[in-house]
Amino acid sequence: MPADRPIIHLDIRCAELGRQLARIKEMDEKALQNALTVLEEQGPYAMFLYVGARHEKVANEFQKHCVGFLREIFGEEIPQNALQAAERLAQNLDDLLFARDLLRTALVYAWYHFRSGEGGG
Q1: Could you list the pLDDT tens digit for every one of the 121 residues in the chain?
Q2: Which of 16, 35, 88, 109 is buried deepest, with most CB atoms within 10 A?
Q3: Cα 38 to chain centroid, rounded
């Protein structure tokens, strides 16, 4: 991360992303759990593919929020398209693993928000 970028509190940003994901209209707990499972087992690219294929109603907004978050953390060089963003992150194993960990944390927060009654728009 360039030295001239402001310091970002990553846990707070993950919690904010989680809140945004939980509040997506038509989001459900099963979609969050399944996205988290795919992310943990296969990574960000597979998660974006899965959400796009299995949860079409929430896919665009889900991907938009996730990519916006990744661009905030990794910089504007991350493409705005979710699959291209995952491909770019995969060029550096450290970035890919870090992104996976951040997205995992955000999805866990989303699940907590959903379970607390804040989910589904």
Answers
A1: 455 666 679 999 999 999 999 999 999 999 999 999 999 999 999 999 999 999 999 999 999 999 999 999 999 999 999 999 999 999 999 999 999 999 999 999 999 998 888 766 5
A2: 35
A3: 12
Q: 108: exposed, middle or buried (C-beta count within 10 Å: 0-12, 13-18, 19+)?
A: middle
CA distance 45 to 22: 20
Cβ-contact 106, 14 below 8 angstroms: yes
Two structure tokens written together for 68: 């916006």
